[in-house]
Amino acid sequence: MIEIRNLTRLYNGIAVVDDVSLTVKTGELVVLVGTSGSGKTTLLRMINRLIEPSSGQVLIEGADTATLPAHLLRRRIGYAIQGHGLFPHWTVAQNIATVPRLLGWPRPQIDARVDELLALFQLDPAQFRNRMPHRLSGGQAQRVGVARALAAKPDLLLMDEPFGALDPLIRAKAQADLRDIQRRLGTTLILVTHDMTEAVDLGDRIAVMDGGQLVQYAPPARILTDPATPFVRDLIGTGDRALRLLSLTPVSDVAAPGRAEGPPIPAEASLRDALAECLWSGRDALPVAGGGVITLDTLRALARPR
Ligand SMILES: Nc1ncnc2c1ncn2[C@@H]1O[C@H](COP(=O)(O)OP(=O)(O)OP(=O)(O)O)[C@@H](O)[C@H]1O
User: Fold this and answer.
1) Measured from the CB, is residue 38 less than 6 Å from ligand 1?
2) pTM over 0.90
3) Where does the chain hold its CATH 3.40.50.300 domain(s)?
4) Residue of 9, 14, 16 to mutate, ligand 1, most atoms within 8 A of C-beta
5) Is this complex scored with an ipTM above 0.90?
6) d(CA 295, CA 161)
7) Is 143 exposed, middle or buried (0-12, 13-18, 19+ CB in 10 A)?
């Protein structure tokens, strides 16, 4: 568990992070979101002490991070940034191995870990192990950056706009991969973005920052249906909030007994997908693969605040 207590950072007497407190449970994915300059990066970097707090505390599993040497703390915490930040004169393998080497892992274990991570991120080890960063595409470099952050199997991973440079298709794939890997490894992940769609898609909980303050900290459905301030409402936008709400729930969660005509929808599809399919195929109800049905009436009821 990560406990952030009354964390403040002043620059020239002005609080750019202003008395922020929040708790992140182990294995949770929390997204920090807010407009440019709202203090997201500063808050994130105070967690691994790339920036020292002016006041307040960060506790990891009950231990105050101020009591550890900062460089040792950073070896325990994975960190990935926009534009990947790879060392240009090191190969992909050397980049990924940075922290395991600092921690003194034996060579065979490092090599195995590098290959395991490359495979996990769908980069053929034989092809990519010895490449230099300038011979990678933006998307590949980004994946190597995330692999490097995960190399020493950190319990905590901090990511600052990790998908900022990716085109929409690769971005969606990278997001899904990250979510999958994070769930499988049980990593606690705190991710900064200014993209509310990314926050809603990825976050177990979303922390909304405005002018250095934490204005709402809640699960995505709550943020969508009950924004705490006009700023949060503006940030979400109201145009497609019904669809965003539907996108949070898989069909399998609400399938009811019954029968319907036509091809079934996969159980893991979202309610948003189900609505699109109803509209596209002109049906009032869809069979769900594996059993049950989903009806337009149900979708209508679930697309509103409950
Ligand atoms: N070293 C510094 N000295 C003075 N002011 C700073 C410093 N670093 C950040 N700031 C200011 O602190 C505020 C918050 O910056 P921060 O980078 O945390 O915002 P952000 O929400 O991550 O923004 P963005 O989305 O643009 O990255 C900004 O107004 C910024 O100008």
Assistant:
1) yes
2) no
3) 2-236
4) 16
5) yes
6) 38
7) buried
